[in-house]
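Why does residue order matter? Because the sequence determines the fold. Keep that principle in mind as you read this record.
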Amino acid sequence: MIPDDLLPHLVEVEHPGRTTDRYGNQVDDWSASTRAAVMAWMQQNAGAEDLDQRSAQIGEWLMLCNPWTTEGDPLTVHGSDRVHWNGQQFEVIGPAGPAYEPTELHHFEIRLKAVEG
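Structure:
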């Protein structure tokens, strides 16, 4: 477990709902999403500009958090989720990376991407 004083940022992990499209496929439905609050450490690892046909700011971030929500429920994070923090929206890149200590799950390391513009 990461001590609480090392997790100063309150973030929300958003899970999309599911709906069936007109072709019978299950697709993400962000209008029916759910959110879970979690304390985390947010750290920007890289930033870049995409100037090819647009002006975009791209940031890659790392989020470290304990494996439960602020309500004490187990936290689940999938590659299709979004993270909201400090007025920004991030996309989760791939599955959450679990970090273990010898006897149990210690924390998650979650890669994020933010694109503006």
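The CA atoms of residues 19 and 25 lie 8 Å apart.
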